[in-house]
Amino acid sequence: MNPKTILSISVFMLIFLSRSVGQDTTDIMKQLEKEMGKSEKEQTFYTTSTFKTTRLVSGHSVENTGKRVMDVKISHRFEKLNEGSYSLFGLDEARMRFGFDYGITDNLMAGFGRSTYQKTYDVFMKLRILRQSRGKKNMPFTLSYVPTFALRTLRVNVPGISNDFTSCASYTHQLIIGRKFSDNTSLQIMPSYVHRHLITLNTDPDDVFAIGIGGRQKLTRRISLNAEYYYQVTRHQLAGTNNLLSIGFDLETGGHVFQLHFTNSQAMNESNFIAGTSGKWGKGDILFGFNISRVFTLGKKH
Amino acid sequence: MPCKRTLFSLLLSLSFVTAAPAQNYITKNGTISFYSRSTLEDIDAVNNQVVSVLNIQKGDIAFSVLVKGFLFKKALMQEHFNEDYMESDKYQKAIFKGNIADMGKVNFTKSGIYPVMVSGDLTLHGVTRKISTGGTIQVRDSKIAATSEFNIRLADYNISIPKMVEKNISPTIRLTVDCMYEPKN
């Protein structure tokens, strides 16, 4: 073997060696990025905080109460603004609802409440069937099912209206399809079905179908602008009722969420605000209202 | 004959290099936890999906953590952590890139615990700051365990605490890092 051959072999080997060593010590940031990319693909990231709380204004948002979390809600709806200064633009009187919501699991919550509006008791559950996520499991939206039962206990003395259980009970079934489009913007649609027997006219239908649409736009980290609208499919609409439109703000301060809003319905339970709203925005039948939500974590403390 | 010897020594050095221990060690399930102790509330969270790469030759060390991966005992704390403080949709990852100064005194062929000093850049909530802290490197068979504990000031990373919850959140947070590395070939 002549020296030239040895030289060429050794040069080749040196290159080869330096390359293999070089590969071992490549920039660790590149390797970190590669491993992180792999790790992210192996995990599922669920979208959180689509809305600040479980209600948009009066109706449900696609958000659930966390597991073992109790949410105490106090809500008021004042009288119409167009009552004028004599009743301080409706602030003299209010309908009130208090309620308790509880997260049984992360995807199932239940709650009940009592409202001074027609002395109504209501009970509901919210089941999250699909949850928006990215990563290993990719889901573009969240889907929830919310059945609500409401019972009017106000006795009315109107001929033709009975005060028995079937006449006072109403049922609402809602699907909520929601998506958090960005950190600031979330939208949802709520196909809804209301069944009730509280009928004032013979021509009124027992069943009302409505499509709701709602959303939020965050204005700051802790304040968001919310709106919800329920469109009643016309041929099923009750005489003298209007579509619900509510616009409000969410203010979040640690454990509390304050919701301040303007709406055309005094009712705070689904069957009444979807299918029994009498106020009309155009006529100034707008009323001020608020919800206060305070959450408590129950169970295991540390 | 001398030629053959040269070739032989070259081959020997080649075999030595290929058989040398791996330079880069990695983990994909390291742990970073933190806690805040204050008069009103204790807050603690843990992330078990920490990705880290350690180069034992140069002493380079890097961490990447998904902020959303921190798990809290209270759902609301987790929500506020992501939404109000860390803004984890906007600043998805926390990154540390640094170097272990006294890597030379760690004997990777022998089991043992070695105290070391780490310094580098920590990027959190969109802010990068230099930090340096002590830690330990533990050599255990073919694996390497690294631990460290240090404090960070929330204000340093533009994480502001509203007056209303001042008594609930400590301005200084204690972080604990615990990673078990395996060789990456």
List keywords for this structure.
heterodimer; A: 302 residues; alpha+beta; Porin; 2 domains; twelve-stranded antiparallel β-barrel; two-stranded antiparallel ribbon; 4 helices; B: 185 residues; Lipocalin; eight-stranded antiparallel barrel; 2 helices; 9 strands; 16% helix; elongated
Highest CATH level, the class of the largest domain in chain A? Mainly Beta
pLDDT averaged residue by residue of chain A: 88
Average predicted confidence as pLDDT of chain B? 88
Hey, roughly how much beta strand do the residues of chain B contain? over 45%
Return the string of H and E elements of chain A.
HHEEEEEEEHEEEEEEHE
Largest sheet of chain A: 12 strands, antiparallel, barrel
Strand content of chain A: 35-45%
How many helical stretches of chain B? 2
Give the C-level CATH assignment of chain B.
Mainly Beta
Shape of chain B: elongated
Distance from N terminus to C terminus of chain B (CA atoms, Å) equals 36 Å
Structural class of chain B: alpha+beta
Total strands of chain A: the figure is 14
Output the number of helix runs of chain A: 4
Structural domains of chain B: how many? 1
What is the CATH superfamily classification of chain B? Lipid/polyisoprenoid-binding, YceI-like
CATH architecture of the largest domain in chain A: Beta Barrel
Report strand order across the widest sheet of chain A: 2-3-4-5-7-8-9-10-11-12-13-14
Q: Roughly what percent helix of chain B?
A: 10-25%
Number of strands of chain B: 9
